[in-house]
Amino acid sequence: MSRIESTADVADNAEIGAGTLIWHLAQVREGAKLGSTCSIGRGAYIGPGVILGDNCKIQNHALIYEPSVLGDGVFVGPAAVFTNDTYPRAVNPDGSLKGAADWQPVGVVVEEGAAVGARAVCVAPVKIGRWAMVAAGAVVTRDVPDYAIVAGVPARQVGWVGPAGHPLVQGPAPEDWSCPVTGGSFRLDGASLSPVPGRTAVSGT
Q: Which of 72, 116, 123, 146 fits a disulfide with 129 by CB distance 3.0 to 4.6 angstroms?
């Protein structure tokens, strides 16, 4: 069964997976779909229609605006923000307050196993690839490749990371990378990194 704290605000038509925990003062809006065994931290916001896979961890005060889609095993750090308006304005050119019909929301896509650090901002529309890592405080303005580590404002790639969350080590050849924790092997082909079949110690990679 899921667990929802009494101070949380969860829409009646939100779908909450088995074993998911929703902590104090979190808000889950209408039509949101949360997978099984997720953890939604204190004060977090999950917008209308946002989709979370299984085993996601959304830390305190993170803001996930619609129409974001998160895959299985995604981590979102404290106070991280996923935006949804390419051209933000409170009012139209005529001075009238903008309504739902006056703008088109765009979303952030985060693929399996990726992690977004504390206070990072992902400026939609962007996609964060599988097992990628966004450093704390980074501002992501363009797509992040699978297994990439990005940092800074705006975010730039600074390395590669494995599913264990530790930076990969290069060698012996320039295109060869390995995880110091699992021993998994990866191969760089141009700008894309992929696990070497049969030589990774983590399933699903």
A: 146
According to the model, what pLDDT value does residue 201 have? 52
> Can you tell me which residue has the tokens 């030589």?
199
Catalytic, 61? Answer: yes
The residues pairing with 69 across neighbouring beta strands, listed in sequence order, are 51, 109
Cα torsion 194, 192, 159, 143: sign: negative
SS3 82: strand
What value does the mean pLDDT take over residues 165-175? 95
Cα R_g (the chain), whole angstroms: 18
Residue written as token pair 């009238």:
96
The CATH code of the domain at 3-88+104-161 is 2.160.10.10
Please state the φ and ψ torsions of residue 22, each to the nearest 5 degrees. -120, 115
For residue 91, is pLDDT > 50?
yes
Task: Give the pair of three-digit tokens for residue 86.
Answer: 């390419």
Choosing from 61, 82, 115, 144, which is the catalytic residue?
61
Residue 40 contacts residue 26 (beta carbons within 8 Å) = yes
> Average pLDDT for residues 136-151, to the nearest whole number?
98
Number of H helices, E strands in the chain: 0, 26
* Ranges in the chain annotated CATH 2.160.10.10: 3-88+104-161
pTM to 2 decimal places: 0.93
* Of the candidates 148, 83, 143, the residue with the CA atom closest to the CA atom of residue 115: 148
Q: Which of helix, strand or coil describes residue 57?
A: strand
How far is 73 from 79, CA to CA, in rounded Å?
18
Q: Which two tokens stand for residue 18?
A: 């088995």
